[in-house]
Amino acid sequence: MKTKSRQNLRPRLDESLIADLPPFAKLSREAISDILKQATSRRHDAGTAIFEEGREADRFYMLLDGYIRVVRITPDGEQVIAHHIPAGQLFGIAVALGRDTYPATAMTATESLSLSWPSSLWNEFVDTHIGFGAQAMKTVGGRMGEINNRMVEMATQQVEQRIANAVLRLINQTGHKVDSGIEINFPITRQDLSEMTGTTLHTVSRVLSSWEKLGYIKSGRKRIVVTDPHQLVMLCAGKN
DNA sequence: ACATTAATTATGT
DNA sequence: ACATAATTAATGT
Question: A15-143: which CATH number, 2.60.120.10, 3.10.20.30, 3.30.1300.10, 2.60.40.420?
Answer without folding.
Answer: 2.60.120.10
